[in-house]
Amino acid sequence: MTTDATDALDTTVTDEAVNSLAGTADPRLRELLTGLVRHLHAFARETRLTQEEWERAVAFLTATGQTCTDTRQEFILLSDVLGLSMLVETLNGDRAPGATESTVLGPFHMTESPVRALGADIDLVGGGEPCVVSGRVLSRDGTPLPGALLDVWQADGNGFYDVQRPDVQPPGNGRGLFTADAEGRFWFRTCVPSPYPIPTDGPVGGLLRATGRHPYRPAHIHFIATAAGHTPVTTHIFVAGSDYLDSDAVFAVKPSLVQDFAETDDPALAGEFGVANPFRHARFDLVLERS
Ligand code: BEZ
Ligand code: FE
């Protein structure tokens, strides 16, 4: 057993802690816990972690847990701002060429999106500049995927999700669960999203302030696309030209996900979507890999 700081390089305690895991029945759990213990110990040694710093870290993690509620996930937020969510996503989100790239889920997919008909407006409160989002859900070989499900969620024009402002936004504002038509097409109306700050009134906000970081995310709409026989994709589309595309607080931007929300003045399109000209229009396909 180590007795003082000069013994910190003695690995006895690390070996003992690792050996204590040897009886873990699940081999993957044993591997994960062993790696965690080794890296935590290496971190403490490398930084010469003090007792006071350890206590502050415990208090920070305690406050992070205490900030979580049914509609707030401060631990996911912590993982997001440390880049861990994006790293895990990238490690597991390897896509074949042509398939839509994935990105982080984020902490606001915690309610079921209301089922909506194609063409419905998910902006229930007139929260910003109207726009149409349309496209197709395709298999990687270009085959349309009729009946594909599209779960969509976005913040309102003030940068808040419905669950953050239940007094101002009705439940389901900015959310919709759509079913692609017989040709795999989808379309819905909404408002052009705007950049917004991730929640900063909890421990993660304190971390951002302590590190001089801004809390903003570039404007985006979230999607989960699911179709029979295919691997679902969790992704966003980002608004081309948005602020913060090059400094997303959660490191989630991928160039292939940036889309134009171009102003359109086409009577035929306006008629097709049931909107007044001119309107903003984002058009893109979601491409899934066979599972
Ligand atoms: C979001 O886009 O909803 C989000 C993602 C990560 C952290 C906070 C918010
Ligand atoms: Fe978001």
TrEMBL record:
PROSITE patterns named among the record's database cross-references: INTRADIOL_DIOXYGENAS
Keyword annotations of the record: Dioxygenase, Iron, Metal-binding, Oxidoreductase
Entry GO MF terms: dioxygenase activity
SUPFAM superfamilies noted in UniProt: Aromatic compound dioxygenase (SSF49482)
Keyword hit for Oxidoreductase: yes
Domain named Intradiol ring-cleavage dioxygenases: residues: 133-161
Record keyword Iron present: yes
InterPro entries: 1_2-HQD/HQD, Catechol_dOase_N, Intradiol_dOase_C, Intradiol_dOase_core, Intradiol_RC_Dioxygenase
Record-given protein name: Intradiol ring-cleavage dioxygenase
Family (UniProt): Belongs to the intradiol ring-cleavage dioxygenase family.
Cofactor section: Fe(3+)
CDD domains: 1_2-HQD
